[in-house]
Amino acid sequence: RLVKWSNIVYSERLRQLEEAKKHVDNGKLNCIPFYEAYPRLSKYLPGIVKGTYYIVSANSGIGKTQLAKHMFVLTPYRFIKNNPDCGLKLKILYFALEESREEFIDSLIVAHLFEKYGISIDTLQLRSMYKNSLSQDILDKLKECQEYFNDLFNCVEVIDSVSNPTGIYKYCRDYSEQHGKHIHTTREFTEKDSFGNEKKTNERVYSHYEPNDPNEYVIVLTDHISLLGEESGMNKHQTMSKWSVDYCRKQITKHWKYIVVNIQQQSSESEKQQFTISGKSIESKLEPSLDGLGDNKMTQRDALVVLGLFAPDRYGIEVHNGYNIKVLKDNYRQLSILKNRIGRSNLKIPLYFKGESNHFEELPPVEEFIQNPLLYNKYKGG
Fold first, then answer.
1. What's the alpha-carbon Rg for the chain, to the nearest Å?
2. pLDDT tens-digit series, residues 209-261
3. Which H helix or E strand runs over 187?
4. pTM score
């Protein structure tokens, strides 16, 4: 009986793997790829994979929210928009625990202005907060983008009024029920009473989730989970665990095959500089780590992928991995794959970061800067 069950399980999995291969061989996709936006990263982390739980972490003010928006909102949307024949659909449920809906929208507006027109302004300029108001030329360009943003916000739903784990889960569950079916099955269980008599019962148990559209990718992004509203009778640590274990890992990713992205800050202790006997800063102690996750380190056990972002300019580091930080300044970021249960980890990718425009791109290899120092002019900080 056990052998028969094993054969069925293996045969079904083999069939699924064959289907995945045929999918790619026929020009289709098994994930939303990163290769357009992050070509080097995509060799180790191919893209946004269904059923995967990601954590994006950094110290305060480094750009973790901006990175999460770029990687898991703008990058998948732009890929599908640029490749309309890919057959993929996108839905993002963005739980903004820190930003308001208006702040979130403004951040995507300035990102699009830079992407489409090369215009670099911050959100304060967008809101006419400085002495000079927003130029009429930019306002006219924003009117030209009406269709783009109408389509974008059909894909991206910003929720800034729900903050506790159970409330967020119910919101996601409601979406899942509207766009698919939760399948249950009846199983027979045998129990023995205190006299050794067997009693058989039939119980309804969860089986799996069937989406109406298998080509839809649903991303549940929460920014950031230290701001989760505490569940009744729980402290912050317990609340974060409930969200991470009970909902993100056991339900949303495992059973529904949705994608979870949790933004989690590094602890304040991880920001303290440590020095060698000669007085040099120990850079590795400043970089984000699994052990440095703030308020609840246990979330790393649940996530399949943990990404960290580091800004050496903040600590006065002049050279980082061969790059001249004195020139690049705050435009340099290092992206680290701290954990990757679906691929290779312990990798570091240098990024160009334009904060006001919510823009990231991979920097050329350091050897190119050594051969041609004038290349720094393209990326140097102000």
1. 23
2. 999 999 999 999 999 999 999 999 999 999 999 999 999 999 999 999 999 99
3. strand 180-192
4. 0.92
